[in-house]
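Q: Is it fine to ask for two folds in a single conversation?
A: Yes, each is treated on its own. Send the first.
Q: Here.
A: Result:
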Amino acid sequence: MSRTERFTFRGSCGDQLDGRLDLPEDRPRSYALFAHCFTCSKDVVAASRISRRLVEKGFGVLRFDFTGLGSSDGDFANTSFTSNVEDLVAAAAALGSTHEPPRLLIGHSLGGAAVLAAATQLPSVTAVATIGAPFDPGHIRHLFPEEAQDRLRQNGRAEVTLAGRTFTVGAQLLQDADAHHLDVILKNLDRALLVLHSPTDEQVGIDNARRIFDAARHPKSFVTLDGADHLLTCRADAEYAADVLAAWAARYLPDLPTAPPAPGGTVLVEESGQGRLTQSIQAGRHVWAADEPQGVGDDTGPTPYDLLLSALGACTSMTIRMYADRKGYPLEHVSVRLSHRRSHSEDCSDPNGRPCAMEHIDREIRLVGALDEEQRARLTQIADRCPVHRTLTGALAISTAVTAP
């Protein structure tokens, strides 16, 4: 059994990008991020079949539409190879904040070139696989007729028909693609690399695979997709590619030792092994990550104080909602904004007579609905009665015990 969640996040240009997170029934052995081919979408045959097969092998797979494509917002004419790479970095950060950072990147066609460029910016990634990828991102220029390239040079943008669909593209797309060279990126990749390519690929010739493989350093592997077309439209070809991927990736994505699942009411926190400070957090069947910002950690998840504030905010909102529903208040929406700060006061005891730090949490509650003043005042009182608020402001004792491995 598997399940699919809608996954949205902000892309490099600030637009909302639409994705699908395919998950196995149990906790994924690892997470993969899939980049689709040029002008395709997350639902292209190759992406959906490979994702489904990897889920069967125990992986969680995120695939999304790049800016201006598929169901994602934004203007495709304003995108470039660089913006695609930045969208991938944003997707990885979003995945890390809600689940776990990706350890495997998979890119199809131009998406293959994009994941190679993105990998060096993602500390969590340990393995990268390309499928029918060009060695030179500027390879896409051959898709544009000469007259379309002339219009781009003259007008800055032009309508072109690619694979039977019409797109408006900007001149920066080709200029930016021409400016990128993967030879330097490949020499500094420092991740395991798998190159999958068909010798009969008519869109991106097999020589591209040779150049990618030659430029990369070990560990690297090459597997031929004999007889497959560029888009892997044959189910058997896509499933074979996924089977090879899963078997190959297992060598570089070893299962991390984990403690038994946390029972109800218990939270388990342990090092994830994906960054210097990155933590894996489990509460029941829910798993997410925590980290510190760049410079201290790898910024793969919220900080411990972010998690503390989120606990108070969630409990506040839930408590207000339950009370309002029970009383029949016309409350339409609740939002809670929180921040943490420290101030110093001389009014607290310190054996050395120095001002001591006072911890503050500022909580701003927004109540939407046709509430009267009495109802608003009552809901404000109720906010202070949420269980987490009472825990934080009560006489809290923490008992610590150190156990053997």
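Q: Second one now.
A: Result:
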Amino acid sequence: MARLISLVEDRSPSLREVSAALTPHTGSAHIVGITGSPGVGKSTSTSALVTALRAQGKRVGVLAVDPTSPFSGGALLGDRVRMQDHATDDGVYIRSMASRGHLGGLSASAPQALRVLDAAGCDVVLVETVGVGQSEVEIAGLADTTLVLLAPGMGDGIQAAKAGILEIGDIFVINKADREGAQSTRRELRSVLAMTERDDHAWKPPIVLTVATRGEGVDEVAEQVAAHRLHLGESGELERRRLARLRREIEALALTEVQSRFAGLSGDARLDALAEQVLAGETDPFAAADTLVEHV
């Protein structure tokens, strides 16, 4: 698994062959995204949720995305430090990935890495994003179920997040609930969610209070994750989400391929000739671009 994910991250030439071999064995894993602002306890909550899922006999994969430094280009990949309790459990696989400058809270290689974990037989795959803000909501397009973590005492978190990240949550978790303000945070969150228009049969996101460092409330989170998975299957929403996810992945791969082809055109005589024609007024940039696309 480690070698396959490394092939994914390095965009190896053999990745096409690997993808073709893995795809028939995918589709069984429940992908659960865990997101929230920095400092809400995502890594600790992920570790506690792994414990709860393992108690249910589930095989668990964890994909933890760490931010890449814009200065050095490196990443600490330290999320695994908080998950040492599972290091010797052969029913758990934990992999850290660097975001490598990709926006949205994830790594560009995340979809293919998830395919590896799915094909390897993981029942549940937890995807922990980097600390995100209100617009970095890419996890909603990748996960079957999205957990949004909040914490009391971190300023007006609801007001800061509701423009984006609150709209993607299937389950809301108020971690560090032993702190003052947990109940008021829940009331404020509940009032914000009440203003969201939903169909009568739509899933209504629950709010769960946890203290991840002590494991309190985490079993309820695991129960809500299972309940949401059941709802997705019964409502047909699971297939809709996965089809949308595959459309985005196919589109991204196609765009990457087109960009790679155009990357080699900087010194191409055809491009130079088209530029000269535009300069001479013989054609316009749009027509020149159409001509170039037809011959790439």
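Q: Anything structural to flag on that second result?
A: Two points. Residues 70-75, 101-105 have pLDDT under 50 and may be disordered. Strands lie at 30-36, 60-66, 92-98, 124-128, 145-150, 171-174, 207-209.
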